[in-house]
Amino acid sequence: MKASAKAPSNIAFIKYWGKKDPKINLPENGSLAVCLDGMGTVTTVDFSDQYEADSVVIDGQTENIELGRVQKHIDLIREMAQINTSVKVISQNSFPHSSGLASSASGFAALSMAGAKAAGLDLDQKQLSILARHGSGSAARSVPDGFVEWYQGKDDQSSYAYSMFPPDYWDLAAVAVLVTKQKKDVSTTTGHSLTSSSPFYQTRLAGIPNRIEQMKQAIKERDIEKFGQILEEEVLSFTAVNLTLNPYVLYLEPATIQVMKLCQKLRDEGLQAYFTFDAGPQPVVYCLGKDVAEIAKRLGQTEGVIQTIVNHPTVGTHLTDEHLF
Ligand code: PMV
User: Fold this and answer.
1) Which of 9, 20, 138 is the pocket-test mutation for ligand 1 (most atoms within 8 Å of CB)?
2) Disulfide engineering: 104 pairs with which of 136, 141, 188, 215, CB 3.0-4.6 Å?
3) Could you read off the pLDDT of 97-132 as tens digits, one per residue?
């Protein structure tokens, strides 16, 4: 059977960094994020006896660093559905692939929903979030709508994401900034596995529950200043850990730092702009929807910036009739 799904990416406010159980992507801490409309993935999955072998095409290519993980995820779906039929998968990202802009989150969320449906599984949102988490932890957060929390959980079934607020709850916007097209040299998987080597990691973890509560309160109150302060405090704590890993990991490029400095300058001018980034050099600037055009323009004029992508909060992963084959 054939099915297609469309999934948004999500960029975390409070980061998932470190795995308690790498086999099932059980995180060391809970996290918060929002689903974004400007960067997503559409995936079509077809399980059929007409295929002699599995085939997977991502962004028009059969060679991809994610292929091993994709194959493992398809095997998991087949095992859940108790089938051994071959599969054809075609997946298309709406943004530069392997750019460090959360492609694994939208990619594994879309693959989970389309794959589960195509395999004849009937999963609810919580079960889909758990399935997506197996592919890539952050994909758990791309399943529900809008502003999401991923519960750390104690085991496989208690670690999933849910929607705290719908996308239209707050007119927040995010400008994703592309500062390099080079692939990052330290994968996210490696980063997760090194976390415990930082002397600051336990201190970071100890502060997360309180930071999550503060951040949830800022979102509830739609308080951009409080939100932004916690957002930057969080990504700097994440960076402090990365700089003190053994071996250390430096994700930032000079243009990332230019963007961090620009945010401060914009705030001095009265525009509320706050930075974050994931395990890579591409910054994402959060701001209010009313300011996003001006902020995206200023970011576009910054030295080293290749491209900007404007995003607004959006719904989570859903089925679509727009099949890719
Ligand atoms: O889902 P993964 O394994 O690609 O890990 C994502 C880790 C960060 O992007 C750095 C943080 C996050 O919460 O998305």
Assistant:
1) 138
2) 136
3) 656 676 799 999 999 999 999 999 999 999 999 999
